[in-house]
Amino acid sequence: MSPPSPRPPLRAVLFDAVGTLFELREPVGETYARFAGEQGAEIPASRIDEAFGRVLAAAPPNAHPELEAAARPEAERAWWRQRVRETLRAADQMVRVPDFEAYFGALFGHYATADAWALRAGVAPALEALAARSVKLAVVSNFDARIGTLLAGLGIAVHFRAIVGPTETGVVKPDVRAFARALEALGVSADAAAYVGDPPEAEFRAARSLGLRVLDASRLATLERVPTLLVADAEEETA
Known about the structure:
The chain is α/β, with parallel strands linked by helices. 46% of the residues lie in helices and 11% in strands. The protein is built from ten helices and seven strands. The longest helix is centred in the middle third of the chain and has 20 residues, at 72-91.
């Protein structure tokens, strides 16, 4: 039996967004509670956090394949509106935010800005080092239509040649079509690319099924190590 053909050199890296490139500055419960408090509604942050987790776990994916791409941002916003309403009800059925529409609008806008998020350690050096090696970069995220604005606000949008999410594709990871769309946009085959993300494991399995190398960013204290780890892995496979 002949040995397997070596992989080509690393030419592209696909990054997850939330939990990989950036993370929340404070727990969801604290933010929701603070915004509610501005309207005089007092709900403990801990109860909101617990309710939010349950609501998201039970919610359908925020993907709308039945709609044209231009109509998806509004559907995504409506999806989040329903999740916020469900979260407040689950946290405390006796408390009402006087002006829910204003409350939700403020929250939705907040999470589109860098005020709500912080880059993970080492992100900027990692992206710069990969770009210096002429490695093409893309984001493959389940975040909604706000993702482009958010990446720009965090100062890293300039590094990415493609930003792929459910607004464009109508699907969410672990659907392999999300990864395939990013590879197509970059003009790179899967065997010359890697995916850097964090659990769930189903996303890693989907990426591997296409032939992508995979790196679990949740195991790294700093993403500054990503270029070294990926390039070393690629060189080992082609040696």
